[in-house]
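At this stage, I wrote out one protein's amino acid sequence and its backbone structure tokens, and that material follows here:
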Amino acid sequence: MAVFPLIAALVALVFSALLVRQYVSRRRPYQLAWALALLMYAAASGALFLGVLSGWTPTEYRVYWLFGAVLNVPFLALGEIALLVRNKAFVNAATLLLVFGTAFATTRIRTAGLDATALGKDLPSGKDVFAHDPFATDLARYYAFPAYFLLIGGTLWSAWKMRGAPQLRDRFVGTLLIAVGATVVAAGSAFALKGVLVGFSATLAAGVALMFLGFLRASRPPTAGPPETPTGPPSEVAARTDGER
């Protein structure tokens, strides 16, 4: 089942490359945050691919856990904050907080004690691998759970604001697809907890594919329609005007 993590890694890399290209041309901070998140997704999926293909090494598992279970979703959430919040000081504070949080999590997981015998499974659980250092497992809950609800809340709020505009239908549908994709990835953690490799790896690939399709759909130019005065935070209005989510 190594093919599914490989697909997820490749889709995430292409997704990230498109976001980097947009950031270079338009300099929207949320594009950079999302590009970093997708690079992390690709790194975690690549580590899973290697672990399943030839057996896990401690380094591969640390990469998988840090970028896939801990940091990925907070960077997606930071992008949502940068898109929706008009207060630049607040966005800068959130960015600084995540920078410090990233440094702490990286150091903590790099030095966390792990049980090498637990790496013999196709899909080792964090609880087993970090059995002697449970705080490394707890980091996933402390970082990813609140960030997921923030991400989904912001995404659904964006879709709600666009629901009544026919010319924004592509962006409305695309935004919902992004929310569904993120939820599919989050739901995959249930398979990871039970060690079900097929279910977990399939949800990784399906979730990032849905987010990518949503991004492509939301990036289409708006269709012709009656003149409308954009509403919402300036960052969101700018994103709509530029033909982006």
Q: What stands out?
A: The longest helix spans residues 134-162. The chain has one domain: 3-241. The radius of gyration is 18 Å.
